[in-house]
From TrEMBL:
InterPro entries from the UniProt entry: ClpS_core, Ribosomal_bL12_C/ClpS-like
Designated name of the protein: ATP-dependent Clp protease adaptor protein ClpS
Domain of life of the native organism: Bacteria
Keywords on record: Hydrolase, Protease
A GO BP annotation: protein catabolic process
Organism: Parapedobacter luteus
One Pfam family from the record: ClpS
Length: 93
């Protein structure tokens, strides 16, 4: 009996993506920002459509928070800084 094996190759990016933990950027409800400002920031910086951004803003308002982005810590932290500079309340989980 013979056993055949097939060799698989992966790029460095594929390997790192498989082992890198995923972090989430959380947008929190606050009493400072308007719906319009939150929606505009999500469209401008995260390329959400206006309809998607409205749903997120409503979820944040009713549930207190919403994950708006997933990725490596470095990727997520860039957007945390951008949204924070716009006055939004954000954190990384």
């Amino acid at each position: 009996m013979t056993v055949e094996t097939q060799e698989e190759t992966y790029t460095l990016d594929e390997v790192l993506a498989a082992i890198s933990p995923t972090h989430r950027l959380i947008l929190w409800n606050d009493d400072t920002n308007t719906f319009d400002h939150v929606i505009n920031c999500l469209v401008k910086h995260l390329q959400y459509t206006e309809a998607e951004a409205e749903k997120i803003a409503w979820k944040v308002h009713t549930e207190g928070k919403c994950a708006v982005l997933e990725g490596t810590y470095t990727e997520v932290d860039v957007y945390r800084k951008i949204l924070k500079s716009e006055g939004l309340t954000v954190s990384i989980e």
